[in-house]
Records
---
Amino acid sequence: METEHGAPLRGLAELAERSAKRTRLVYARTVLKTPGVESDPALRAYFSTKIAREYGDVQILPDVIRAQQGATATPRSKAKDTGASMEMAHVLDTLESERGIGPTAAPSASDGTVSVRAAFAAKPRSESQLESALIGTSDANHAADGQSMLSRALQRKKELARREAQPTPHPQWKLMRVISGHLGWVRCMAVEPNNQWFATGAGDRMIKLWDMASGQLKLSLTGHISTVRGLAISARHPYMFSAGEDKLVKCWDLETNKVVRQYYGHLSGIYALGLHPTLDVVVTAGRDACARVWDIRTKAQVHVLSGHRGTVASVLCQEAEPQVITGSMDATVKLWDLASGRCTNTLTQHKKSVRALALAPHEYTFASGSAGGRNIKRWRCPEGTLLNNMTNEGIVNTLAVNPDGVLFSGTDTGSIRFFDYDTGVPFQSIEDIVQPGSLDAEAGVFCSTFDQTGTRLLTGGADKTIKVYREV
């Protein structure tokens, strides 16, 4: 085969050989034949050190990988190391012959040179020392089995998490007493700070005070013209606060058993009431989709906490930030800054209406309950970080937490469930027993609270009774 000028075409092997020779001549003139490289010991030492530094690590397997592979990989790695060393020696011989250096004796330390071969002849560190430092003496046998350190670390992490998730053992709870006296659904209750008595409010527009020890009725208070939905007893003043669907907030003097102040301003029925533990303010919320902050003494409306798009069904007050927490039928929980009256965070993880909130007395968290899905959630204050989820079948109407880490939840179907608060693991589930003569549909639990010791639980329901539970 010929070209246009009649010259025969050269073979592929001949063309490749010519190209290689030209490339070699170009680089030999510019790099390898640089004047002074062969004669200058400093330049020789520089190039030798650079080669050792850049290519020395790829001669052998890293010690970490060799320790992971164990004894089975040792002969193979040694064979690879021998082959790599022979190949590198051949490259060095070729390089020295092209430079015209030739094999020379090992330079002395006095002339400051470093041999290329000496740089590559360095021995690796002891494998046993590195193996003992990385995986310890007790795990050396596992490394021989070929199990990686990463998988063992993951297994240890899972075992540790499993141990931490073990719930704290709690005693079982048993029904101790059933108290009758209301003529309507029991919608709210509060325990006196000295744990001597407790108060309940119901659909019969009455507020009743009961003796804690005997369960006997001590006093009945009238004044509301609609269902009483919120109660709070002050630990700093001899006052009790009540709120109802009649849009009124009342302050009762417990020494005279009379109303001393009334707070006006809500545009619709009030569904929740919370009393601040250290400030002279009371917070109420209801169907007008906002929470209102009242000054106890002056009856002035300090803030209107607006932002919810539905009925605000629950409200909490605490000393630390956030000082006000609200739960609404729009399926959100809002955290409020009481000083500025602004929302600091909105929690949207619930899928349905939030009807219950409860503060943990033993840690800086709170719980919320809604109507569906994983309907009980635990949050960390002050930012509102979700910690875990719990489930109770039905619409959760009430939550309560005691200092021992027991979370109680009651639903509209009468399902009662006790959880370990820290892990969210349920340890007891029972069904509410309706009062004889009531319908089965009246088994719903609307309100609950623990006494000041945390050993007795009070619940109010649709069968118009108050039930007292205690630890077995």
Note: Residues 14-124 form one domain.
---
Amino acid sequence: MNTPLFLCLALLTPATLAGGPTLVIQEGDPAPGTPGDLVRSLGAPFTNGLGQVGFTGSLEGEDGIEHFVWFNDGVVWRSSDGAPFTLSGAESTMGISDDGDFIYSPSTDGDDSVWTSAGLLLREPDPAPGFPGQFISFTSRPQMTAGGAATFIGGVSTVMGGSTSTRVLFRVGDEGPEPVFATGDAVGKFTIDTPSGVDFDYHFSDNGRHHIHVLVMDAPSTADAFIYVDGRLVARESEPTGDGDLWSAFDNVSINDAGDYLFTGNTDGAIGPDEFIAHNGVIVLREGTDVDGVPLTGGSLRAVSLNNLGQAVHLWGVTSGDEYLFIGTASDLAATSTRLLGTGDEIDTDGDGTPDAEVVDFNASGVIGPGLSLAEDGRVFVEVDLLPLEGGEEREAILRLDIGTRCPADLDSSGDVGFTDLVSVLAAWGPCAGCPQDFDEDGIVGFTDLLTVLASWGPCRG
């Protein structure tokens, strides 16, 4: 969850984005960290607190096809690293920490499982932590905070190999996975509905102190969906939105270190303005709104992410079939959102200053995970499909958008540039490609980067 960029927004014109987005990797490219294996597929990107990126995907090389985990600038884990287990597949949802740890969900010898950088964490049908005499029936939607706290959704069965009777949000502690809550648990005056009331849409803040979740409660079906935030139920299906209609459904969620949060969904209002983004329970953007010259007519919200600076990125599809990515101040998205990228935009993938590919699709989807992840250093990463302008087949790709930040030298996102930021630069001194301390992006943390910190010393200024 974060946001980085050094791209001037004025350059992001609807027609051409040459010199804007940076290609991280695309289908068919040799993957860094491998002996030349080629990328076959890519998953959704996720950032840590430093704006570094992680994602899963698949490779093809001399040894055949296998899946991988990417961290920052290359492949750090391959499914063959799990030997003697046979690993296959990988959910698109994953997570990385500031220290380079990761969590993801492959199949292990054909069974659902969760792995971290430390090895196998849990698999079907292991004994279910916190549920004596019961067994894991599935694992899904792994995430990790910047500090390294790992979470995932798991199913529990009363018999080995049986169907799911309880769905659980697990958090990984010092002793291994432990339940945060499960279906059948009480929250306020309601009980989480069995067997699947713990929804797959959830998020923890970078500091791990705040948690937002879509829950389905044991209540009438027209009023059983809720938004849970830090132990409270803050919104309920069929109750007033405060904007003239009623909450009807909830989808994507995001929360930051201050406990501010976003959630999306639909109201019972007229079709056209019924899809929304709400900030701290107040609707701040609706379908049908004109955003930076783009009418969200027939708008369908694909994904949303909130960072610790109070900025949000949001991705919409419209009636024409086009899709658009925006960034704005989370508390006032309708008035402040700026278009970053859209289908039909032409981009430069090889750095020669000339567009060579067209964005034809965004692959972010809140259905299979958060879909977007915005960091504080001015970068957002997106998974797209690109069509070469000279002809050829579409390719999956991960792009980095450098959108600028109010204070790049504020490495700890404290609002001030000070001693901890100086120490961070000194600790990273030397070759360090892709490091947030490398402000001039020359691949080395050195004297000019140190000068950036000293020139920015004190409170961040706009």
Note: Residues 1-19 have pLDDT under 50 and may be disordered.
---
Amino acid sequence: MDGNPDPLRTAKDVRETFKRMAMNDEETCALTAGGHTVGKCHGNGNAEDLSDAPEGGELEDQGFGWNNHKSRGIGANTVTSGLEGAWTTNPTQWDNGYFHLLLNYDWELKKSPAGAWQWEPINIKEEDMPVDAEDPSIRRNPIMTDADMAMKMDPEYRKISEKFYNNPEYFADVFARAWFKLTHRDLGPKSRYLGPDVPSEDLLWQDPIPTVDYTLSDSEISELKAKILATNLTVAELIATAWDSARTFRGSDNRGGANGGRIRLAPQKDWEGNEPARLQKVLNVLEGIQSGLAKKISLADLIVLGGTAAVEKAAKDGGVQITLPFTPGRGDATAEQTDIEGFEPLEPVHDAFRNYLKHDFKSKPEELMLDKAQLMGLTAAEMTVLLGGMRTLGVNYGGSKHGVFTDRVGTLSNDFFVHLVDMGYQWKPTGKNSYEIVERNTGNVRFTATRVDLVFGSSKPPEHCLLQRLF
């Protein structure tokens, strides 16, 4: 822990790190122990003799970093992490030796040859010592890191370690499943898997979604749009709900998004950014339409279709007749198919498109906007037109007027951009993340805005004028 051994504090960081990967304590312990059942650490030398990291190495290093040009630097003399030694008696085979050593011996702090802190056993039996990396006639002390000692000293990890030690088959199964999860989670839904080795079992972390067997004709789609628009729901309510349903999508691992309709389930239905009261109002109306249909249509499809119909209406109100493409086929996931804790990292704690910030973050709002847009897979042009369009549609969080540069709220128009670049206005800061648009000739306040609104017209590096760059 910052160079100072502290297994209990390390346990806290390990737990947090693996939680971000949606791993529970049992999976974390299995991955730690399983990963350390084979292999060794390398720190048998002077770390100061190593060359730069790969990106800082000389041309002749050809991408290999931390080379040792002063001594042999390989085999038993390798220095990488700085710790030196194997974790188990037989570091080239899968067994339960990790827990045997960890739990049956007392451990003390020592320094590796490279000067790193590591834990070594007290009075270890010779037969429990791993052999030297090159000379099998020599036996060496095994080692443990602070993370390993956390598996022994943290009360919860200790219980799991003892369970694994007493049941090696269970440990192997948990490790195999956790490893599969670790290496496949970024593939997204199981439907994206290819090849003959795809497991038949549906796993909760894969965010399973029931398949649907219906199709919709153009006339059926038009009829559904008419039904939705005939309700008491506003354009803003329909678009906000469709957007909130879709904005959880992450291109990094293909999680989230509108498919599954999980916005109607915990935890999403209770997220502050989804405005639970407004969300439930929309869901109730759409469920009413759904229950009256002769053909069973998923709520996930109805949510997206509602947003589509609302955008078309907003465009029509602005004098433009358009028909947006709509592809049905989304399923409705159940609560049993939803990992509540696993979805917590997808909560939108910032969303520039709806001018929403849950907290006062260290990063600037415009930086968070770029991060969100990249995660959703949006291009710069798509990010710009979506934000400007949504401002005029009036879908800001909580009905905020920041950035709503129009007198025709609810009508899809380019008013946001027209007023943003109008030289008849000047901008005056009123707080850390708030501004007023003031008429130059009268001094009257015309609109209010936030940083994510003004950034599109800024010439301040590194933003430069996004409008000029894009258009």
Note: The two ends are 50 Å apart (CA to CA).
---
Amino acid sequence: MYIVLPQAVHLILDTLHRNHHSAYIIGGCVRDAVLGLPIHDYDITTSARPELVQELFQNKGITVIPTGLKHGTLTLRIDHENYEVTTFRTDKNYQNHRTPQEVTFADTLLEDVNRRDFTINTLAYNEETGLLDLVGGLEDLNKRIIRCVGDAEKRFEEDALRMLRALRFSMTLHFSIEQNTWSALKKHAHLLTYISAERIRDEWNRMLMSEYDHILDLLYDSGVLTILFPELSKLYHHNQHSLWHPYDMFQHTQIALQHTISYTLIEKLAVVFHDIGKPDTMYLDENHHGHFPHHAKVSKELAAQVMKRLKYDHTTMDTVCTLIACHDYYLQPNERFMRRFLGKLGGDYALCRSIIKVQLADDQAKEQIRAKEKIEILLQCQKILNELEQQCPALTLASLAVDGNDLKALGLAGVQIGKGLNIILQAVIEGSITNTKADCLSYIKKHVS
């Protein structure tokens, strides 16, 4: 097999080879090349010790960043791109099921490969030797299997993050997880409590963006969902007792997620958390029908707790919470209503569009005969929103044809000016007047007289 390498990677490999050191690209870049997928990052492994790597490339005028010198990793900055070069090594004595405390530089590729996570990530390549497969990674790629290198239990006990990576690779590559690896994952899922919130968040984000159909099922079956997202696990087999909901809360959420193809991460987060408040708000009426008063509010509050736990940024948290709070807000397919709604959102068309998308995903997971009309309404609202965006109507105070000085000239002062501008804005949003200076001033004169 021949892999076309970027010029910078050629330079790195050639420099190391000319100085009598083994060097290969390894890991995800080789895996993706074999699968015919786009390659985003190139990692290089070499027999050269890190001090020598640093000297060789600094002598060439290349910026060398000691990103992980203790673990033999240097980052080379070439043509505004980063390339990690890591010395062959073995890892021992892991602390907190995450970090090796004893790193020993090795002389052979096989030693380095045997410390890695999954066989499909051990393939190495350079143009001289071609593709090197030392532990059966190519066979597992062909079988579409995620398999740990060596003893799966040992791999997960060493670094618990590998369990999330196994699940994520299964989702993104649509591979199955080999039986021994799966059994070890289920047995040691509790070790994920040792992993930092940021690492968990990043893997969770990648899973959501994978477009995999059964994200929640896979996480639940592995035991991971109960440990990391007990709020979502509570939905499992929770009957909604509603004619609108033929699926239990868990299935409903998963089906809604299946209708988020091409959605943004923020929209997917809103969909996956939109109903986590239902178990806490549900009651059955005398006819044994389920009701969920204020579940959007409770779901928003619980989602905020989950995202805070995982250290999401405030902008993401605020936007997701707004989408959840609005997921059961009934929109009306007429221009006046949509103007008002946009006005409440501060004229934020993108946010309004996201609210509609979250509602669409939610409704696609309901009883379809009953939900059909609601879905049609939402599609009409989308169309109206697009038309309004083309028209650019005034929806905020800043977009009015008048300002405080104009009202001051009419004799208004202090809080009267702010109230007056808001009165004008509401009239413009309602379509009672046009957003011209003459109409706005005429309207406020009549209103305050």
Note: The first strand starts at residue 23 and ends at 26.
